[in-house]
Structures are given as structure tokens and as C-alpha cells.
Amino acid sequence: MQQHAEAIFREHGGQLRMSEAIGHGITPYTLYTLRDRGVIKLISRGVYRLTELPPLSTPDLVTVSLRYPNAVVCLISALAYHAITTQIPHEVSVAVPRNSRLPSLDHPPVRAHRFSTGSYQTGIEIHEIDGAAVRIYDREKTLADCFKFRNRVGMDVVLEALRLHRERNRLDVAALLGYARVCRVEKVMHPYLEASL
């Protein structure tokens, strides 16, 4: 039974939430036995990973995405992922739909933001990180979100991200303005955008 459980882990990228493992026929007893034998390890409450796998490159993003698959990495965490900030996130910022339960973890620390339906659903990219599907807003959507949350993020951080994105990538102005309309920050963003182009 334990070899079968290990095979199930391997089939699913080497990491599973407890509910997923049980759904695939692995009993809690088998999970705990595998953990006690050192075959799997608990990387966050309810999330197990094969110990034979290489270390996670971005453990915080992977852990949060495994625990909360509907959360979308946003704001400074997304800026850091896209390498358009000099800020080092001390928590994982995620967006959730306005009426959903806010995620909370002991580690890593999570800062959840409730987004309206349109704003939450727009601009999501799915990135494969260490075998996990991580939902992250694209660069332009992240910039629009940062303008919306400029009082929390800091206007200096927003302007730095806009400048770095323009220098390192091709800024898609049409997409950025579309996201600005969705986030209702078009009037706020317009003067900064004109000055930077």
C-alpha cells in the first residue's frame, strides 16, 4: 500500500494536499506512516511533499497555492515574481473573490485582499513552479492593482515597478489601460503613464 501511495504522489508532481491524497485512495494512516518513515514531509498544514524532490525554489508561493488553489498572487508578491521591484516581500499577497473566506497560514505569512469579481478574474496567468500550478496576475494587471492599492503598497513602489517594467519588458499600454478600467484607476494612472512614456 505504501509503494502505491508513493506512486500516486509521483503521478501528481510529488506533492498533494491531504484531501487530494485521500481522494486518490491514500488513507490518513498511510500518510502518517510515509511521513514517519521520511518518505514525505509536511511542508504546510495539510500539504505533503516527497522528500526525494529537490528543494522548492519559491516555497512560499508554492505552499500558498497548494493550500489555497483559488488565491491569485498579487501586488508586491507578483511584482517580485515578475522581477519588476526592488522590494522583498515579507508575506505572500494574494487576491480572493470578495465573498470568499480569507486564507491564513502560520507560515508563510499571507496578506489576503478581497477583489471584485471582474478584477479578481482578469489577468490571471498560471505558472508551473516546482510542480505546482501557481496563479499569478500578469505584469500589466499587477501594475493596475498596485495603482488601486497605492496607499497600501506605496506610490514610490508603484512608480518604480512601472519604470522597471518599461525598461526590462515591453509595456503593453493597451492591456494596462484595459486593466485600469477594470480596476477603476484609469484617471489616477493616466498622468503617471503619460509622464513615463
Structural write-up:
The chain has helices spanning 2-11, 18-23, 28-36, 59-67, 75-81, 117-121, 139-148, 150-153, 155-168, 173-183, 186-196, and strands at residues 15-17, 40-44, 47-50, 72-73, 92-97, 110-115, 124-129, 132-137. With 197 residues, the chain is α+β, with helices and mostly antiparallel strands. It is elongated, with a radius of gyration of 19 Å. The protein is built from 11 helices and 8 strands.
**Mean pLDDT figure:** 90
The number of E-state strands comes to: 8
Q: Nearest-angstrom radius of gyration?
A: 19 Å
Please estimate the helix content.
40-55%
Topology:
Elements: H1 2-11, E1 15-17, H2 18-23, H3 28-36, E2 40-44, E3 47-50, H4 59-67, E4 72-73, H5 75-81, E5 92-97, E6 110-115, H6 117-121, E7 124-129, E8 132-137, H7 139-148, H8 150-153, H9 155-168, H10 173-183, H11 186-196
Parallel strand pairs: 5-6
Antiparallel strand pairs: 1-3, 2-3, 4-5, 7-8
